UniProtKB/TrEMBL annotation:
Domain ATPase AAA-type core: 36-362
Xref: Pfam families: AAA_21
Organism (species): Candidatus Brocadia carolinensis
Domain of life of the source: Bacteria
InterPro entries from the UniProt entry: ATPase_AAA_core, Bact_Antivir_Def_Nuclease, P-loop_NTPase
GO molecular function, one term: ATP hydrolysis activity
Name of protein: ATPase AAA-type core domain-containing protein
Leader peptide range in chain numbering: none
Amino acid sequence: MKKSLEKIFNTGIRIVEVRVRNFRSLKSVDLSLNRLTLLIGPNNSGKTSFLEALFAAMGAGRRVLSSDDIYIKPNESSPPYNRSILIDVLIRPIKEDGTFSDTFPEGSYWLNLWRNGIAQDDNDNDFMAFRTKLTWKQESAEYSVERQFLREWISDSSKIEDAEIISEAGTVSAKQLEPMALHFMDAKRDIDDDMRRQGSFWRRMTSDLGLSDEDIKSFEKILTNINEGIVKKSGVLKHLESALGDLYNVMSGEREGIELAPVARKLRDLTKGIDVNFTTKGSQAFPLIRHGMGTRSMASILVFRAFMKWRSLMAKEDAVHPMLALEEPEAHLHPQAQRALFGQIREIPGQVIISSHSPYVVFHADFSLSYAFKSISSWYTRVFKYFPHYKAVFLKVIRFLFIACGSTPSFLYISPCVASTSVATRTWCTWIPSASGRTTVTT
């Protein structure tokens, strides 16, 4: 392997900030990102919209932006042609210890990849920033998407439209984004689908088992012998083989023979039928695809982690920066399992952005950057910085609810907890235990 496991978490770069303008309900949203970033808030508050905006800018298999994605004011039936979607992404080099570097090292993979697109700030520190823009083109009478390098990252985010483009660097190509492409795993993830779907992380890992040509030839000979042995001893298969021989009486061509293969004869086909048995102590063994959605959802996340670790280990130096947008990782999981979930997520290399509306996620996640999304109305989203030192207050609230309910509530809903900037500086939390009506706690 070309890298040690300890080094795959430091890829030489970090996406440090994302600015979104006029994308769905996100009229103006700026978020700083760390290695692990948490987005919390109720349903329809804009969390998924932010993830999809970032996916539109740099996603693996990027979604197509359209006029349907443009922010619309309450009194508008459609967006005006002069309103554009802007998604700006800022990337900085980092050192081996995880701190920011002043420059992209000479000869580094990222410097060679973006050379003409790398710029310097007022302190002569290197950065790479690019803009994804959906705008109306009068000459073609249609919307068009462009991706271009930015020469500056304006500190006043209200003036980002004035940022200068590096015209001589040309457009940002798919090749220049692919090594850090964002992968989006929504709440409907399922290992069963992954094992069947062409192009999934499972399929991409198992498509090449890393065997030598000699090993492949040897194993496929064994598979041929297994097939012949099964057919020879199975009266049913021998009967079917004989019946299918009548194809020669109908179809033109010289008779060569009919062969049944109850087991795939080629290793490349055998991997498509790989099964995983998952057994807990004292229970019967079942294939993973027959387990509940909680187990299958978690397995899908673990396969992604395995894929990214393997890809990083096998890549050239600093050639991969894994990016994952993970929607509701707690979906279908028992609260006890949710507590153990984040130890697994922390092992995912690169950067991870999680969206959730579960209080268990807030309590058990130790993320340095967290944001609360609040839907002001159906057409506008506000984002607040969540301060980790309020976690102790939240834990007191949850203990109070446990005592009040007599047991652990089957479901708790956070809507959302936001650090107020008022003079009183209060934290307002609304909790709704499913079996006990509505409880409001103010601290």
